[in-house]
């Protein structure tokens, strides 16, 4: 068997593992002919990982599960969100408990203890929620099969009433992968940042955590070869990986073997805290959507991992069109060094998204913004990473009638989108609206709300025509008198997979 054949088999296996199995039907005609267009079929299996939400005894966490209705999806199947330690116990009879000694790791939960909630979606198109509280909530591993898999979304939302990181923290539980970039982390004295690593598989994963500051790579032998046991989660404290205090860091999680889910939890002594989700893969142009219009401070953090420096145009897509931030028209990034620039209250009372494009040659970069709302003791923080477009469809779960803001931007060409509010988790009827987003603008749209809403609902965005659309959803809620908030971006949910059509009937070869 030659190298080409081996590569084809490996690629096919990887496609099935990542996107789920899709059945292939033999064509009715035979004979050679031009290759047919690939068919878009619903995925049949999806995995999501939710990290430990908090170590605070006064933390309250809500998990919201939602699967949009997908044409052609299987009518059967199931979805399930279970504690990682429970899966470990099922697999090997042990709890998968970590000792918290290496690399500043914390325990992910007590071994053998049945953790709640265990979410099981009842029907596609209707959210299911579950609540937990305290510091012993474990990491969760979720799987969805059949009709529950395409576009499955789980939101983890935590309210912390006091202490470091107080406020509202939110995160979309994510699929396992092998590489993650986090511009915007910190080892500053006022910050406590953890990289949460969750392993869903039956074998251990080996991970390297690389740190890049304003002067380049930081030496950290402790960050090399971190072992994450099967079906477990390890939060690694960044300040244990280096002695350097850096206000702005880029973290690269590189998986040597296996796969993990990864997210950074940032806790600030004065500015609250939130989750920092990974930036989209390094690219020459980036979009960071959904900066709240009342932001009092916006800091852009960017990094180029290649060997060449990068020069970027910085533009704010506003409701009326592109705006150049005064004094920050361009941004120069030195190779391997983290660059941060404070843009102040750049949105000035209007919806906005940052658009980064190369001034000349394209050099891959990653980026995120740290957003602060409020003043004085009432300040709260959230992060917005660069993200990929909405694409065919994207979903944000755990919305309320008053505390949700949907922001959409079309950086290059005018686009039409359809936004659907699902039925409520406890009652209500789905509703939809269609919007036109003009080229170069950002709009906080008047999103639909389910009629007769009870509970929470999901917002699903579908691109109908035009150029690429980027989106973000902001959740806001009062937490002990402070306006807490969290922002989740809306990348394509990858609910379908392209399956090439065979151009001839190979069944005759079996006769």
> Rounded to an integer, what's the Rg over CA atoms?
23 Å
Q: Please count the beta strands (DSSP E, at least 2 residues each).
A: 37
Q: How many helix segments?
A: 2
Low-confidence parts lasting 5 or more residues at pLDDT below 50? 1-35, 88-117, 504-511
Task: Jot down its keywords.
511 residues, mainly beta, five-stranded antiparallel β-sheet, 2 helices, 5% helix, 48% strand, disordered N terminus
Describe the structure.
By secondary structure, the chain is mainly beta. The protein is built from two helices and 37 strands. It has helices at 3-19, 84-92, and strands at residues 36-42, 45-50, 59-66, 77-83, 128-133, 140-146, 153-160, 167-172, 179-185, 191-199, 205-213, 216-217, 226-228, 232-237, 249-257, 261-268, 272-276, 286-291, 297-303, 310-318, 321-323, 330-333, 339-344, 352-358, 366-373, 380-385, 393-399, 404-410, 415-421, 427-429, 431-437, 441-445, 451-454, 457-466, 470-479, 482-489, 496-501. Strands 9, 11, 12, 13 and 15 form a five-stranded antiparallel β-sheet that branches. Strands 18, 20, 21, 22 and 24 form a five-stranded antiparallel β-sheet that branches. Mean pLDDT is 86; it is low at 1-35, 88-117 and 504-511.
What does this entry show, briefly?
This protein is mainly beta and 511 residues long. The protein is built from 2 helices and 37 strands. The strands form 10 sheets. Strands 9, 11, 12, 13 and 15 form a 5-stranded antiparallel beta sheet that branches. Strands 18, 20, 21, 22 and 24 form a 5-stranded antiparallel beta sheet that branches.
């Amino acid at each position: 068997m030659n190298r080409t054949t081996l590569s084809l088999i490996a690629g096919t296996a990887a496609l099935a593992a990542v996107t789920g199995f899709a059945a292939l039907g033999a064509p009715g005609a035979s004979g050679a002919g031009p290759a047919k267009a690939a068919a878009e079929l619903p995925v049949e299996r999806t995995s999501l990982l939710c990290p430990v939400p908090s170590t605070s005894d006064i933390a309250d966490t809500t998990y919201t599960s939602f699967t949009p209705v997908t044409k052609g999806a299987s009518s059967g199947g199931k979805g399930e969100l279970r504690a990682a330690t429970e899966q470990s116990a099922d697999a090997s009879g042990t709890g998968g408990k970590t000792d918290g000694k290496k690399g500043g790791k914390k325990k992910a939960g007590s071994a053998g203890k049945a953790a709640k909630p265990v979410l099981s979606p009842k029907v596609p198109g209707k959210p299911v929620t579950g609540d937990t509280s305290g510091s012993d909530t474990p990491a969760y591993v979720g799987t969805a099969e059949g009709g529950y898999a395409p576009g499955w979304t789980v939101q983890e939302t935590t309210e912390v009433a006091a202490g470091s990181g107080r406020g509202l923290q939110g995160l979309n539980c994510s699929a396992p992968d092998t590489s993650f970039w986090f511009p915007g982390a910190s080892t500053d004295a006022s910050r406590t940042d953890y990289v949460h690593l969750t392993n869903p598989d039956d074998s251990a994963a080996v991970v390297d955590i690389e740190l890049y500051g304003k002067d380049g790579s930081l030496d950290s032998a402790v960050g090399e070869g971190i072992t994450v046991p099967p079906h477990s989660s390890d939060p690694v404290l960044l300040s244990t990986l280096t002695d350097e205090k850096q206000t702005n860091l880029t973290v690269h999680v590189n998986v040597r073997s296996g796969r993990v889910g990864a997210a950074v939890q940032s806790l600030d002594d004065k500015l609250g805290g939130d989750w920092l989700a990974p930036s989209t893969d390094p690219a020459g142009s980036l979009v960071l959507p959904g900066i709240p219009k009342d932001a009092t401070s916006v800091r852009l953090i960017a990094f180029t991992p290649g060997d060449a420096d990068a020069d970027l145009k910085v533009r704010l897509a506003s409701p009326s069109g592109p705006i150049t931030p005064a004094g920050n028209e361009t941004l120069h990034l030195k190779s391997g060094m983290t660059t941060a620039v404070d843009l102040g209250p750049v949105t000035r009372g209007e919806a906005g998204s940052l658009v980064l494009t190369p001034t000349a040659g394209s050099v891959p970069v990653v980026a995120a913004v740290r957003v602060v709302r409020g003043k004085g003791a009432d300040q709260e923080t959230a992060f917005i990473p660069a993200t990929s477009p909405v694409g065919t469809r994207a979903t944000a779960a755990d919305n309320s009638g008053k505390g949700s803001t949907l922001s959409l931007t079309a950086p290059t060409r005018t686009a039409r989108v359809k936004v659907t509010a699902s039925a409520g988790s406890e009652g209500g009827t789905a509703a939809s609206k269609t919007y036109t987003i003009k080229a170069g603008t950002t709009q906080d749209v008047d999103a639909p709300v389910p009629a007769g809403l009870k509970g929470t609902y999901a917002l699903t965005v579908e691109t109908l025509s035009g150029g690429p659309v980027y989106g973000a959803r902001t959740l806001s809620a009062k937490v002990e008198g402070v306006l807490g908030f969290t922002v989740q971006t809306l990348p394509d949910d990858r609910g379908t997979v392209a399956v090439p059509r065979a151009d001839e009937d190979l069944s005759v070869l079996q006769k």
